Amino acid sequence: MPGVVALRLYYLASFAVIGVYLPFFPPWLAARGIEGLSFGLLTATFPAMSVIGPPVFGLVADALGLRGHLLRVACAGAFVGFAGVAALAGGGGASFAALLVPVVVFGFFRSPMAMLADVVALEAAREGHVPYGATRLFGSMGFLVAAVLAGGLEPTSAVQIPLAIAALLLVTLGVTFALPSRVPVPARPSAAQIRALLASADVRLFLASAFFAQAAFACYDQCFSLHLLARGASPRVLGATWAVGVFAEVLLMANAGALASRVRAPVLLAVAYGVAALRWTLIGFVPGFLPLVALQPLHGIAFGLAWISALAYVKDRAPKHLLGTAQGVFVATVSAGSVTGMLGWIHVYRRGGGALAFGGAALVSAIACGIAIAFARRTRAGQNEAAA
């Protein structure tokens, strides 16, 4: 199907952006002398904008049936934002005050790019075309390749990292013109229907567990590169280490369909959050950087399994005409968790290093796991009542 091919290319390009941004933007900021609260605010801007952007774009997508049109708007805005970062860096003006506006613009428009693609992929999966995991894994592959190649860039260079991100955003924008611009407008969601969905006990437990899980995961996004470099890893090893984790994510997503057919999504979420708690504990306390590389396959479960399971629940739980809205609310919730974590973890890391920061993240993931267990029990009880 040409639409599926174009969607896979979109995932490949759009997640290549994140494959450069996540591992290398924090060290790039540190190399510019941006630290402390300023560092935390700039790295938290992307998830902060993800609290706003996805629900807004999701509501518009559901109300007007827009897909490719909205993706083009999002990609163009994100490109303009990071082109501004690159221009400031090239002119020697990469201060916190100067960077804040273009980083906010990038964050707002980049935040719905994955969410809108997920809506298209979930719609394709719901219609029986291609399983979601078989499409989404191309995003993980894009992240993997970009993280490895970006390891050859110099994080202390003023322009290499921002130019690479801006160029990848421009490529992503080009791919959106091959995607379907819109779908037939479904029944428009009402405020009462949205409130009823969010008032459900199972949905609230699901969102609460996702919030705490992502608050813990923010420690990895924000501090893992710094932790690796502090342990003596080179930039090339840094990129390869991130790539190992994403390769495990690709393998899991390629086999997610078989796993989901055997185990309920809420149970898989509890498992993923429990493994995440173990992962953060080990990252914080094992010595050297080679063991950190060896632990990266756990990323396949801690992130890949959690994401696939969460979206499987959203797809099954939300009515068709509320899919974009429900996906937007989910992304906003995990983004709120990211903001909460990123505003705190960098300070914890500066004070106590990786042991204190990742040890704290392990405790927060354990809370997420406990809520997910309650969520799994609640949904099982609901299924039993429905069967009776």
Describe the model.
By secondary structure, the chain is mainly α. 84% of the residues lie in helices and 0% in strands. It is built from 14 helices and no strands. It has helices spanning 2-31, 36-64, 68-90, 96-126, 132-150, 160-176, 191-199, 201-230, 235-254, 256-262, 265-285, 290-295, 299-317, 323-387. Helix 1 (2-31) packs antiparallel against helix 4 (96-126) and helix 9 (235-254) crosses helix 13. It is globular and about 55 Å long. The N and C termini lie far apart (41 Å). The model has no long low-confidence stretch (mean pLDDT 86).
Key traits:
388 residues, mainly alpha, 84% helix, 0% strand, cell membrane, transport, cell inner membrane, transmembrane, MFS transporter
Shape: globular
Strand/helix succession? HHHHHHHHHHHHHH
**Residue ranges: pLDDT <50 for 5 or more in a row?**
none
Alpha carbon gyration radius: 20 Å
Mean pLDDT across residues:
86
* Strand residue content: under 5%
Alpha-beta content class: mainly alpha
Sheet with the most strands, sense and barrel status:
none
Distance between the termini: 41 Å
**Proportion of residues in helical segments:** over 70%
The number of helices is 14
Number of DSSP-assigned strands? 0
